[in-house]
Amino acid sequence: MVEDERKDIESKVSKHIHNLKWLKIVGVGSVGSGKTSLIKYFCENKFSPGYQPTVGVDYGFKIETVDDKEVRIHLWDLSGDDDYYDTRIELYGKTDGAFITYDVTSTNSFDSVNFWYNEINRICNPKPVVLLCACKVDQANKRVISKEKGEEWAKQHRMGYFEVSAATGENVFHMYNSLFLTIMKRQLKVA
């Protein structure tokens, strides 16, 4: 009797674990571009105005319902500092999706987008779903990179484009949900 109950429990646990969906997402971009703020806003629904650069890597976790499925989202905030290149390389493995951030108030930040795109494509195999995120759009009076310029870059590289602000929450959840749905649709095609 006890043995039958144990087998029944093991079977249920095994089925549950098999049905769990996990997604690994990495955020990349130049130092100060908004990666950490996007992840914190999504995971904790808060924005911290003071800038603290990521030392190596940071991590966020959230359970979301995507397309009527419970999904465990693992968000890796990879430092944009060159000193952490080796750390980034190690953490790109088995990435399902990535978002490249740039700060709309910084030309240098936008100029680094090619670097991040190339790093992802060189290291990740298979290639993850990638989105381009124009961050800090709430700072319209300081903006130096136009929406059109960002959209054109994303179009040329066949990826989604989102204008986001962790300070106001603008489009943050929309961006993430789009990324998650695109990943899951791709995975269904492969299966």
UniProtKB/TrEMBL annotation:
<keyword id="KW-0342">GTP-binding</keyword>
<dbReference type="GO" id="GO:0005525">
    <property type="term" value="F:GTP binding"/>
</dbReference>
<protein>
    <submittedName>
        <fullName>Uncharacterized protein</fullName>
    </submittedName>
</protein>
<dbReference type="Pfam" id="PF00071">
    <property type="entry name" value="Ras"/>
</dbReference>
<dbReference type="InterPro" id="IPR005225">
    <property type="entry name" value="Small_GTP-bd"/>
</dbReference>
<keyword id="KW-0547">Nucleotide-binding</keyword>
<dbReference type="GO" id="GO:0003924">
    <property type="term" value="F:GTPase activity"/>
</dbReference>
<dbReference type="InterPro" id="IPR001806">
    <property type="entry name" value="Small_GTPase"/>
</dbReference>
<dbReference type="InterPro" id="IPR027417">
    <property type="entry name" value="P-loop_NTPase"/>
</dbReference>
<dbReference type="InterPro" id="IPR050227">
    <property type="entry name" value="Rab"/>
</dbReference>
